[in-house]
């Protein structure tokens, strides 16, 4: 296991964590081991989610990303170790307090049958309600705001199960936003979305972070989107964190090889100057086909 980026950034050097430099963290994991029956999926994992930052978790299929997120959102109990919220074991924090601090959008959420978009988004307000309290102006504002910012207002009266995959995904994001939690855990929020809506959702997440100070942890598959939108990148493989840190330090050809087993080159992103991963082993040409010429050496056509 290489952990060089961690060693040079979050952990503060080879002598161990330098707590004075470490960003504050309301949400963390200590020695977290997660299992399904007898099968361990996440093994002894430590993580400090930096407050007020966007953390993106990347890694190959089945490496334990969703399992980790579910445990951070208290949908899964640790086999060993703990998730800490404000220094308290998550299991010991009252459910309502967890739900007011932490919103989780799972990878494959299931909506109640025949529920409308408006009603589903409104369910995000449940942690804020009491049995003696009417639906408040604050509830209304939060729902309207969440639906506006995800572009689902016109869908309010439609049944969720009649929507396209991308529309449905935005409705779920609206529900998570309506919960108005300081910590937001999003498992692949861009799945099913076309490229314009992917960028829209990621920009929205960043705005929530930059303008409203929300702490975000999200799982993304696209390494280049991860590099663009993460302040803190966490790379997992086989249930462990193999590297973490700011993307411009964490994303290297070595990391891509180690985590995904993929040869790649990392070049400056022409838009942001950050790292851009380009899979780097060209496919052999088909027999008899002319050799391909790298774009940079092609002559301009008149
Ligand atoms: N409810 C479950 N019961 C049993 N095994 C599970 C369950 N959920 C996940 N697993 C297993 O745990 C491992 C990790 O799954 P997880 O969903 O955390 O992976 P992931 O990194 O999110 O993958 P993906 O990128 O495909 O979403 C996989 O081998 C998976 O089969
Ligand atoms: Mg997953």
Automatic annotation (TrEMBL):
ABC transporter domain boundaries: 27-263
Record-linked PROSITE patterns: ABC_TRANSPORTER_1, ABC_TRANSPORTER_2
Keyword Lipid biosynthesis: no
Source taxon at top rank: Bacteria
GO terms of molecular function: ATP binding
Transmembrane domains' residue ranges: none
Record keywords: ATP-binding, Cell membrane, Ion transport, Iron, Iron transport, Membrane, Nucleotide-binding, Transport
Entry membrane topology: Peripheral membrane protein
Species this chain originates from: Streptomyces chitinivorans
Predominant location: membrane
Subcellular location: Cell membrane
Biased composition (Low complexity): 1-12
InterPro entries assigned to the protein according to its UniProt record, in alphabetical order: AAA+_ATPase, ABC_transporter-like_ATP-bd, ABC_transporter-like_CS, P-loop_NTPase, Siderophore_ABC-ATPase
Protein name per the record: ABC transporter ATP-binding protein
Cross-referenced Pfam families: ABC_tran
UniProt cross-references to Gene3D superfamilies, sorted A to Z: P-loop containing nucleotide triphosphate hydrolases (3.40.50.300)
Stretches the record annotates as Disordered: 1-25
């Amino acid at each position: 296991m290489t952990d060089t980026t961690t060693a040079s950034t979050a952990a503060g050097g080879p002598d161990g964590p330098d707590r004075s430099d470490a960003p504050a963290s309301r949400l963390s994991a200590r020695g977290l081991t997660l299992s399904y029956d007898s099968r361990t999926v996440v093994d002894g994992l430590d993580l400090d989610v930096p407050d007020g930052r966007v953390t993106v978790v990347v890694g190959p299929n089945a490496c334990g990303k969703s399992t980790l997120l579910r445990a951070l959102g208290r949908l899964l109990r640790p086999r060993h170790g703990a998730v800490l919220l404000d220094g308290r074991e998550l299991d010991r924090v009252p459910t309502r307090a967890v739900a007011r601090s932490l919103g989780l959008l799972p990878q494959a959420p299931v909506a109640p049958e025949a529920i409308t978009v408006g009603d589903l988004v409104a369910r995000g307000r449940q942690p804020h309600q009491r049995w003696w309290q009417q639906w408040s102006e604050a509830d209304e504002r939060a729902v309207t705001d969440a639906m506006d910012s995800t572009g689902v207002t016109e869908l309010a009266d439609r049944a969720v199960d009649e929507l396209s995959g991308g529309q449905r995904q935005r409705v779920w994001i609206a529900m998570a936003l309506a919960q108005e939690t300081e910590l937001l855990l999003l498992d692949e929020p861009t799945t099913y979305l076309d490229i314009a809506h992917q960028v829209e959702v990621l920009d929205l997440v960043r705005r929530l972070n930059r303008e409203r100070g929300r702490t975000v942890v999200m799982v993304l598959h696209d390494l280049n989107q991860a590099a663009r939108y993460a302040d803190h990148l966490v790379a997992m493989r086989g249930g462990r964190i193999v590297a973490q840190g700011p993307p411009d330090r964490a994303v290297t050809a070595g990391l891509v090889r180690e985590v995904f087993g993929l040869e790649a080159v990392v070049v400056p992103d022409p838009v942001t100057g950050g790292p851009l991963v380009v899979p780097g082993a060209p496919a052999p040409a088909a027999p008899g086909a002319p050799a391909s010429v790298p774009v940079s050496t092609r002559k301009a056509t008149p």
